[in-house]
Design a protein that fits this description.
Elements lengths: L25 H5 L4 H25 L4 H10 L1 H14 L3 H6 L5 E2 L2 E2 H12 L1 H18 L5 H16 L4 H26 L8 H6 L10 H10 L4 H14 L1 H5 L6 H43 L8 H5 L1 H7 L4 H33 L8 H26 L2 H30 L8 H25 L1
Antiparallel strand pairs: 1-2
Helix pairs in contact: 2-9, 2-11, 2-12, 2-14, 2-17, 2-19, 3-11, 3-14, 4-12, 4-14, 4-19, 6-19, 7-8, 7-17, 7-18, 7-19, 8-17, 8-18, 9-14, 9-16, 9-17, 11-19, 11-20, 12-17, 12-19, 14-16, 17-18, 19-20
């Protein structure tokens, strides 16, 4: 495996030098999972600890269905982008740039749209950086929040600007394992407190009701829980850097190539399924903790009191002794998002800058230099955004709403990939297409419904 993740290996230039037959046995397939775990690490801090818990605190159990649907419905879009990475070796921005339609300067309008929307999402990750700083502030009350915010940015930059795929994957898996066990433990302990869950509580949240007062938070939560539009795009890059495209080889439409592509696509399906299972369980757990404890207490995470309020879901379920454990756990959960999001942002942004003609993304040296610079620019921009606005929940939910808009572009591109770019030899069965269209329609319907409710 090491030959796929050295400094000299360029995963974005596909040749036949590293062609490898895919594993067919389940236990061997497990060895090749990873891209979905990086996505899980980037999802859980913002979507789960803050947005999901805030929705549960404000709406109670009634919007539990929004969280479940959000986690399940978008995975079909995710695997379509992963599939495109495997059979074509193309990045998402490269695929965007090949779409028919209006071009602005050197790039397709979808590339520019993504650049604009993702620049606005500086607010979202700024809220996460602020959340990490607030956790540290609770542990070190005498230290300035400004110093802590920039310290978080500096550590994230140091870990990322030279970080190759294998390091990012391994670190994400460690953090993901910790917050999964920690959160499930809290939910289990909840049953021994006055806030114990009843089946009627859970069933009341599966009635597909959406109170008007909860619409804004629900939109943000839908856009940010599970895989958002930006994470779906990231997945393409992580599949490429994992080596799925390199192992498949250059497309020549031969039977050998088709079998390799089909086999690595099946590995990618398993990767996406395992990741979806993990982040759905964690998301549901965070929501139920917020709905059962914070909603009953009548408090909701807001402003600089966000982390202090969130600590109640741990101290009320485990006891006052759990406060230090909460600080450690919430730090890891939130920092995992900053870390994984930064690693993803620098790759996609560098690619987008290449499409608009500012750099040559195909030149490995230029790409690495650009990514290294962005690895310092973005975290400091996030820190500044938090220090100016100082409303982490608002910032995270605003990013979620922007993510919902990005999902419309993602659905459009996914449909084009499925029906215009996918080789006929890799066409899926009818069941896959059914799930694909249900996913596309659900995203569109929720998006339109949400916009109507807002305006």
């Amino acid at each position: 495996m090491s030959d796929y993740h050295t400094a000299n290996f360029d995963p974005y230039i596909v040749t036949n030098d590293l062609v490898q037959d895919p594993p067919t046995v389940f236990l061997k397939k497990i060895r090749y999972l990873g891209p979905g775990f990086i996505l899980s690490a980037s999802i859980v801090g913002s979507g789960e600890l803050i947005a999901t818990t805030a929705l549960g605190a404000r709406a109670g159990f009634v919007t539990f269905w929004v969280i479940i649907v959000s986690c399940l419905v978008k995975v079909a879009m995710q695997v379509e982008f992963g599939k495109h990475a495997i059979h074509s070796g193309e990045t998402v921005m490269h695929a965007f740039d090949k779409l028919p339609g209006k071009r602005i300067g050197k790039a397709h309008w979808t590339v520019w749209s993504w650049l604009i929307l993702m620049t606005l999402k500086v607010l979202q990750v700024g809220g996460i950086v602020g959340g990490v700083a607030l956790v540290l502030k609770m542990a070190m009350p005498d230290v300035s929040i400004i110093f802590l915010s920039f310290s978080v940015a500096t550590v994230a930059a140091i870990l990322t600007f030279r970080g190759y795929y294998k390091f990012i994957e391994s670190t994400s898996i460690i953090m993901m394992g910790f917050f999964t066990v920690f959160t499930i433990g809290c939910l289990f302990s909840l049953q021994y407190t006055p806030y114990a869950l009843e089946w009627t509580d859970i069933l009341s949240g599966l009635q597909f009701n959406l109170p008007a007062a909860a619409v804004g938070v629900a939109i943000g939560a839908f856009g940010i829980t599970g895989v958002g539009g930006d994470e779906i795009i990231y997945y393409n890059y992580w599949c490429i850097e994992k080596g799925y495209a390199a192992k498949t080889g250059v497309r020549d439409d031969s039977e050998a190539w088709r079998k390799r592509a089909d086999g690595w696509i099946k590995v990618m399906y398993l990767d996406a399924l395992v990741a979806m299972t993990i982040y759905t369980i964690v998301t549901a757990a965070f929501y139920l903790l917020g709905a059962s404890i914070l909603h009953q207490l009548g408090i909701s995470p807001e402003g600089n009191q966000t982390i202090e309020v969130l600590s109640n879901i741990y101290t009320e379920s485990l006891g006052s002794w759990a406060r230090p454990v909460f600080l450690i756990g919430s730090f890891i959960v939130l920092f995992s998002t900053v870390f994984a999001a930064l690693a993803s942002w620098i790759r996609v942004y560098a690619d987008a800058l290449g499409r608009v003609g500012w750099i040559n993304f195909e030149d490995q040296d230029q790409r690495k230099k650009t990514m290294a610079i962005l690895a310092w620019v973005f975290p400091f921009a996030w820190a500044v955004a938090y220090l100016v606005i100082k409303l982490p929940v608002f910032m995270v939910l605003t990013g979620g709403i922007i993510g919902s808009v990005i999902l419309f572009i993602v659905v459009y591109v996914a449909i084009y990939m499925r029906y215009r770019r996918l080789p006929s030899s890799l066409y899926p069965g009818r069941f896959y297409d059914l799930i694909f269209w249900l996913s596309a329609l659900a995203i569109a319907m929720v998006g339109v419904y949400s916009l109507v409710k807002i305006f």
